[in-house]
Amino acid sequence: MSLVNGRRRAAASAAALTALACLWAPAAWSQEPKAAENAQGTKADPGRLRICAAEQPPLSLKDGSGLENRIATAVAEAMGRKPDFVWLGKPAIYLVRDGLEKKACDVVVGLDSDDPRVLTTRPYYRSGYVFLTRADKDLDVKSWADPRLKQVDHMVVGFGTPGEAMLKDIGRYEEDMAYLYSLVNFRAPRNQYTQIDPARMVSEVVGGKADVAVAFAPDVARYVRDSSTPLRMTPVPDDTTRSDGQKMPQSFDQSMGVRRDDTALKAELDAALAKAKPRIDAILKQEGVPVLAASN
C-alpha cells in the first residue's frame, strides 16, 4: 500500500521523503468504531489483525477488493484472525508514520523488503516495472536502449520513479514534461504528494494519447487485464543502467512491515505467509500481476 519506497522513489533520498511526509499535518482516521478505539490506545483484540490501510486503487479499496486487501485478508485468516482494516484519510505514503508508528494499526502491506522504517517479513512476491503498449502496434519495447523511445509520441511515467529517471536520461523529459503535468492538473510534485493515477496511465495508452507507459506492474495489471483494447506488458530489464553508469533496479521484493520491535508479530506473519502462499499466488494470478522469484 505504500506509494513511497524503493519501487516508487528510486530517484529520491530517504531524507527527502521524510521531509515530504513531515509537510502534512496529522489527519483524522476514517475507521470503524473498534478501530477508532484502538487508535486511541485501547488494547488490540488478539483475534483481529489491525492492517494499516489507505485508498489506493487498484491495490487498496474500502470494499476489500484491492490486491493488497485480498492478500492481507488471506494472511489474517491463515493466522486465525479477522482482518481489521484501519483506514487513514490520506495517501499511503503516511501509513508507517501516522499509522504503524502511532500504534493505530500493526501491519503495513506491500512494502519493499528492504524498507528501513520497519521490520519486514519474508517477501511474499516480487514484481517490477513494465513497458505498457498497445498490442495492435508494432512497438514491443523491451529496453530503455530501444532507439524508438526517442521518437515515439508521449510517454507516461510516474513522478520520482525509475521511469522518470530514465526518461530524463534518454533526453526526452523536457518533451514530455508539460504532458505529464497535464495528467495531474499541473500540480507540481515538489513538496507535496503528487502522482499520476495508474488507471489514467493505462487509459492514455489505450486512447492513443501516449505510445508507451512505464509503470509498476501491480499498479496497472488489473486495468490491463480488464481493458477492451489488448495491451502488452513487457518487464523492464533489471540490468537497466543510466548513461552515467548508475544501475536502476526495476524489480522489488514485496513484504509486510511491522514496528521494528514487534518481532513476535513478524514471526506470526512469516508463518502465515507460508501457509497462505497458494492463496496469495492465486490472487496474483487472478489480478494478472507478472511475478518473479523473490530474491530472499
Automatic annotation (TrEMBL):
Task: Enumerate the UniProt keywords alphabetically.
Answer: Signal
Classification via PROSITE patterns = PROKAR_LIPOPROTEIN
* SMART domains, alphabetized: PBPb (SM00062)
Any signal peptide, and if so, which residues?
1-30
Q: Which Pfam families match?
A: SBP_bac_3
Q: Where is this region: Disordered?
A: 229-259
Specify the superkingdom: Bacteria
Solute-binding protein family 3/N-terminal domain ranges (all copies)? 48-291
Keyword Plastid assigned to the entry: answer is no
Would I find Cell inner membrane among this entry's keywords?
no
**Name under which the protein is recorded:** Solute-binding protein family 3/N-terminal domain-containing protein
